[in-house]
User: Fold this.
Amino acid sequence: MNNFRYFMPTDCYFGRGCVSEHKAAMAKLGKKAMVVTGRSSAKKNGAQKDITDALDALGIAWVLFDEIGENPDVETVERAAQIAIAEGVEFFIGIGGGSPMDAGKAISVMAAAPQKGTDALWDGDAKALPIVCVPTTAGTGSEVTQYAILTLHAKKTKSSIAAHIFADVAYLDPKYMDTLPAKTTNNTAVDALTHLIESYLSARANAVSRGIVEMGLSVFRECIPALRKREYPAEVRDQLLLMSALGGAAIAQTMTSLPHGMGYFLTYEKGLAHGMANGVLTQAYVEQFPAGDAHVARLLECLGFADTKELGAFLDEVLEHEAIYTEADLEYYTDRFMEQPGKIATFPYPLTREDIYNMYRKSLMK
Ligand code: NAP
Ligand code: FE
Assistant:
């Protein structure tokens, strides 16, 4: 067996009512918090109120920044950080999908080093003020990963900040997902599935990450009928949130692989939701492995699919992908993806520019 490290420092609470029940976990993080959310969902699903009630009960002051859009950009993070610094905020609470949780981590990095401005985001050794994450989608697993993905308009793509920031505390309450529309539920569930798949097949996988993924895949398998029907009873919401946290714990060890790196351009250029961008590339990615690869066979078995075609048909059914692409788009995405040696190195076999182009072609010109 290869040598490996396993690291997961986040204090996680899972279950309905967990914020109120375990609010004491926030008591020592600071005297003033910034609650970081998207524009409306955290108000509607009750997560914002649960958190602010808990802060009030603990005697912790708070300010609200509720302007995080989807795929947050550096400019928004910078604006929030300036407010946090002026307000003397001591810790952050990101509530929402991956966008507010990732933004919360990035704001926390900037607030920890006010003199550095946005340079702090690109310093791999940068520290952050304490951060709490409350997921309200079951997809990114950001509450248990060290990544924060921001949109960089200057580079016309998205990228993880260099600083690696794990949340100090994560509250995973599936009830916040009761308000999640079917489209977002399916897109985010597919994001989590791609975390599981990319982690499992990565050159960086190890015995523990693969064990976590096998559990995640078997939980995902139980959710397949609900994702197809677009109906999600409470037990399915529980399973989806558990599965997405397992996906996060796995990519925290291995990082993501080709579909994530290739999909960022589909999000930036065509506006595809993050999970959909990865999902549309997944069948071609899995088929890039040589026939008979034992890990591919095992993952299909865990999911209950006979072959990669069944996996692809399932993804087509649960996603609603309608974007149109040109030949020039495929060439552009391929060139841009080839600028990411780190992602290419996660693929355990040799990979050429032509392979990447063909994966885009198979996926987007069906
Ligand atoms: P999102 O961009 O956070 O949210 C998508 C939409 O869903 C928003 O309109 C949001 O509304 C709404 N929403 C969120 N929770 C809801 C709820 N409970 N009920 C109703 N609507 C709700 O989507 P996401 O897919 O979770 O996150 C995507 C981001 O995470 C991308 O930037 C991606 O790159 C990143 N990501 C990060 C990691 C990581 O490890 N850090 C991993 C994968 C992906 P509001 O705006 O009103 O809140
Ligand atoms: Fe993702």
